[in-house]
Amino acid sequence: MALALFPFAWNVAAAQDGASFAIVVDDKSYRQCKPELELYRDAVRAQGLEAFIVEKDWESPDEIRDSLVKYYKNRRLEGAVFVGDIPVPMIRKAQHLASAFKMDEKEFPKRDSSIPSDRFYDDFDLKFDFVGRDSVETGFFYYDLAPESPQYIECDIYSARIKPSGKFADRYEELSGYLRKAARIKKEQNSLDKFVSYTGDGSFSNSLIAWKDETVTLAEQFPLTSESGDGAKFYAFAMYPVMKDILIDEIRRDDLDVVIFHEHGMPERQYLTAIPDETGYRDYMSGGFELGKFYARSQYRSYIGRGMTPEKAGETLSARYGIDSTWYANAFEPEIEKADSVMDLRTGIVLEDIQAAKPNVRLAIFDACYNGDFREQDCIASRYVMSGGNTVAAIGNSVNVLQDKSSSDLMGMLAEGYSVGEWMQQVNIMESHIFGDPTFRFTPPSGSVRPDLKNTDVGYWMEYTDEKYPCDIQGLALHRLYTLHYAGLPELLMEKYASSEYYMLRLQCMHLLAHYGGVAYPGLLKKAIDDPYEFIRRKAAYYMGKIGSDDLIEPLAEMYLSEYNALRTAFNIVSGGSKFPDRKFQKALEEKINGAGFIFDKEAFLKEVLDRTDAQSRMAEGAEKALEDRNTEMRGLYIASMRNNPYPHLAEKCLEVVTDGSEDEDLRVEVAEVLGWYVYAYNRAMIVEELSGYLESGQDIPGPVKEEIVKTVGRLEDYLR
User: Fold this and answer.
1) What is the pLDDT of residue 279?
2) Which of 44, 61, 229, 249 has the fewest CB atoms within 10 Å, counting from its CB?
3) Cα–Cα distance, 324 to 319 (Å, whole number)
4) Picking from 3-17, 219-233, 503-517, which range would have the lowest pLDDT averaged per residue?
5) What are the backbone dihedrals phi and psi of residue 628, each rounded to the nearest 5 degrees, phi first?
6) Cβ count within 10 A of residue 405
7) What is the pLDDT of residues 531-580, one digit of tens each?
8) Helices 171-185 & 27-46, crossing angle to 10 degrees?
9) pLDDT at 17
10) CA angle 38, 40, 41 (to 5 degrees)
C-alpha cells in the first residue's frame, strides 16, 4: 500500500478550493492499474473536480464509509467511485426504501433476501446495525437499517462502481482498458442529441396508451433530440418478430448518447420478448408464425417438465390459447430443440452478446429488475461499460424494481450539463446504481442552465422555479426546496401543477406534494385523474386508493369509465378500489355503469368489471379476517400481503394487534411493519399518534416490537410535513 494514498495522508496542499472526488480502490487493483488510475484521476481533475485516489486492502464497508464522511466534512467531497474489489453492503430491514423488493428475511437465505446497496456509502444520515460477514462470499457484509435511522433516502454524495469481472478477459486488463476509455471520452465535445428507447414485452402491460407519452416527455427533457429526424427513436417489442438484431445495431452506434431499456431482466439477461399470455398468440402470429410456434413448444416443454402428461399439456395449451397440436407436436425432436435454443437467445440480450457488440452508446439506462446486480461476477449494466466499446456509464437496479416506477425523473439535468452522478444523487432509490464513471457529463449547449447543487439558500432556488427555465431545472428547484424544508412549498406545488404545460414538471409536483399532510394532495389527485399525461393519471389512481378516504370513491369510479381500455391505469383503478371498505367502490362503479349511455352491452361490461374487482376485494376481506381471527387459515400470508396493499380502513385493527400483548410477538412485529406502508393513508396521522402514545405509555413492549414501531413512526412522519 502506498502511504501517500492512505486516507488522510493525501497531500492537502494539492487540493483546490472546489469540490473533490474520491477514487476508492482495492490495493491489488491499484498495484496492477496504477498508471491508468492516475490517468483517470487527472482527467477528472481536468473537468474541475479535485480527484484523488484512496487505496487499501479494505476490511469492511464501515472503514470506507468513515473515510468518505471525513472527506465530505473536510474536503467538500462531491462523489466517489468504487474500483475493483470493494466490500458490498447487503442491507436488511429496509425494504420500504426499495421500489418493489419484498422477500421474507426469515424464510429465505440472507444473500437472496438482502438488498446490495451503496446507499450505505453515499447517504451518511442513514444508520445501520452490523449483522455479520458472509462466511462464503466474504466480500458481502450484512446490515440492518437501524430503527432510529431516517426512513428515507437523501444522498449526501453520488457514487458508482467500476467492477471488472474476469469472465471475458484478465480482470486488470479489462479495468485498465475501461479507465483509459473514460479518460479519453472526457475530452469529447458531445451534446445530448441522440436517444433510443426500447419497451420490452410485458412492460406497461404492453399498453400503447402508456407507451406513447415518452415521446412528449423526451422532448421536454432532451430538446436537442427533436432537431433531427433520427434524434430520437422509440422501439417496442411488437414492431418486429425479433428485435434483438435491431437493438444491437443501435447500441453499437458511435453517435448514440443515451439508450433506455424498459424491460424485464436478470443479472445476465435483458428480456426483449417473452411467452405471450392468453391473448397473446394472435399478436405473435401477426409478427411471425414461426415465433408463435416457438413459444408454444417452449410452453409445452415447460408443462411436461413440471409433471404434466403430454395429453394434459396439450389440453391446457388448447384451452388457454386456442391452438392445436400442430403448434407443438415436434417439440422434443433434437433438431427442433436445438433450433429453439438458438431462437431463445434471439429473444433476449445476454452477457456474451454485449461483449461481442462492444456498445458505443455513452449512457445506458436499464429500467429493469436485476440488470445491475453487482453481487454477481458480472451483470448486464456492468458489461455494457466494461466490454470495450465507448459506453462509459450505465444505470441498473441490483434487485427487482417496480414496473410503475417513474424512471426518468429530472433526467433533463443531463441535457443541461450535469454529470450522471449529480442527476442520480437526486433520484436514487435503495436498488439503483451507477456503473462506470459517475462524473461523465454531456457537453451543455449554448445557453444551458446549471444551478449550483450545493447552494442551500431558499431564495436562490425560488428563482429557478420561474417558467422561463427548462422543465427539469424547474423540477430540480422544487426538489431542492423540498429538501430545504421550504414552508411555502405545498402552495407552490399546487400552483405549478395547475399552470405548467410540462408533463414531467406536473409529475414532480405530484411526487413531492405526497409528503405533506392536509387536503392539498387529495385535491391535486382529483385534478390529476384528467391529466393529459397517462403516467400521472395512472399514479393518481394508485395514490387515491392508498389514501382511501370516502370522498375519492366517486371520482375514482368515474375515472374507470374513461380509462378501462388503458390497461395500466385500469389496473390501478381496480386495485385502488379495493382499499375502500364494504365494497363501496364496486357499488359506486356499478351505479356509474348502469347510468352510462355509451355502453352497448352493460351486462357483459359489468360482469367483466366485477370479476376484476372481486379478487381484489376478497384479498381485502381475507386480510380483515386475518387481523380479527387468530385461527384464520394462512393468517400470516394475508397479513404479509398488506405491505403491497395497506388498506386504510384496517389501520385500527392493525393497531389492536400491535398493542395486544397476548398476540404472537413475531406477528406483532410484522403488523407494525405493515403500518409503515400506510404513508399515503388518510389516517396516517392517527396511526403516528396511537403508536407514539403506546411507546410513551410505560407498558412492557418487547424490543423487536418497539424497534419496528419506532421505524414505522419515522416512515409515516416523512409524509406528514
Assistant:
1) 40
2) 229
3) 10
4) 3-17
5) -85, -35
6) 14
7) 999 999 999 999 999 999 999 999 999 999 999 889 899 999 999 999 99
8) 10
9) 56
10) 60
Residue 365, C-beta contacts closer than 8 angstroms, at least 6 positions apart: 258, 259, 260, 261, 394, 395, 407
| Partners of 56 in the β-ladder | 26
Cα(422)–Cα(649) distance, integer angstroms: 41
Q: Which three cell numbers stand for residue 656?
A: 389492536
Q: 289-305 vs 310-321: helix axis angle to the nearest 10? A: 130
User: Would you give the DSSP letter of residue 419?
Assistant: B
- Alpha carbon distance 18, 78 (integer Å): 10
Residue 715: count of CB within 10 angstroms of its CB: 22
Going from the C-alpha of 429 to that of each of 151, 389, 540, 613, the distances in angstroms are: 12, 28, 21, 31
3-state secondary structure of 268: coil
C-alpha neighbours within 13 Å on the C-beta side of residue 423: 31
Grid cell, residue 341, equals 435454443
User: Dihedrals φ, ψ of 334, to 5°?
Assistant: -50, -45
Gap between the Cα atoms of 512 and 393, Å rounded = 28
Give the count of alpha carbons within 13 A of 468, CB side only. Answer: 5
Amino acid letter, residue 332: F
Torsional class of 288: left (φ above 0), alpha (ψ -120 to 50), beta (otherwise): left
Within a 13 Å sphere around the CA of 360, how many CA atoms are in the beta-carbon half? 8
Q: What is the DSSP letter of 442?
A: P
Distances 126 to 32, 67, 580, 709 between C-alpha atoms, Å = 34, 16, 34, 17
- CA–CA gap between residue 513 and residue 492 (Å, rounded): 10
Helix residue spans in 629-664 (DSSP H): 635-641, 651-658
The chain-wide mean pLDDT, for the chain, equals 92
Are 654 and 644 in contact by the 8 Å Cβ rule? The answer is no
Dihedral sign of CA atoms 62, 66, 68, 69 in order:
positive
Residue with cell 364494504: 582
Q: Which three cell numbers stand for residue 421?
A: 452522478
Closest CA to 340 of 350, 349, 330: 330
The Cα–Cα gap between 19 and 492 comes to 31
Nearest CA-CA partner of 33 in 59, 55, 3, 64: 55
d(CA 558, CA 138): 56
- pLDDT score, position 345: 87
> Do the Cβ atoms of 517 and 688 come closer than 8 Å?
no
Q: Read out DSSP for 346-394?
A: HTEEEHHHHHHH----SEEEEESSSTT-TTSS--HHHHHHHSSSS--EE
Residue in the structure block whose three cell numbers are 352497448: 600
Instruction: Work out the pLDDT band at 605, boundaries 50, 70, 90.
Output: confident
Res 280 pLDDT > 80: no
Compute the distance between CA of residue 461 and CA of residue 476 in angstroms, rounded to an integer. Answer: 9
Residue 117: name the closest of 146, 97, 133 by CA. 97
Q: How far apart are CA 205 and CA 133, in angstroms?
A: 40
- Cell numbers representing residue 249 in the block: 445495431
Spatial CB neighbours of 540, under 8 Å, sequence gap ≥ 6? 510, 525, 528, 529, 531
pLDDT tens for 449-507 read 999 999 999 999 999 999 999 999 999 999 999 999 999 999 999 999 999 999 999 99
Q: Exposed e or buried b for every residue in 112-143, given b needs 16+ CB within 10 A?
A: ebbbbbbbbbbbbebebeeeeeeeeeeebbbb
The answer to whether the pTM exceeds 0.85 is: yes
Residue 15, C-beta contacts closer than 8 angstroms, at least 6 positions apart = 50, 75
Compute the distance between CA of residue 536 and CA of residue 500 in angstroms, rounded to an integer: 14
